[in-house]
Amino acid sequence: MMDHRSYGETHDCKGCRYWSEMLAMSDGGPVNAACLSPTSKKRLTYVAGHSTCDVWASGYDGAIDEPGANPDRYAQLDQDAP
Fold this sequence. Notes:
Distance between the termini: 32 Å
Number of helices: 1
Helix content: under 10%
Largest sheet: 3 strands, antiparallel
Shape: globular
């Protein structure tokens, strides 16, 4: 079972939409992925899933760079949310 993403259920990187699905690596340990947030101090650095920052945004629909997904879907989904 893969446990590298929590889809917004945790307030750490593995729950954040900006924690990359495509720019990730593991050396046999936990997954580290690039932060794709346009405003985070951690932008474009590899961070562990348990890391946190002040620009966290729920990844309830996966990473913004998830293969096959519309990268702009959060703008519409967030607008439609109650």
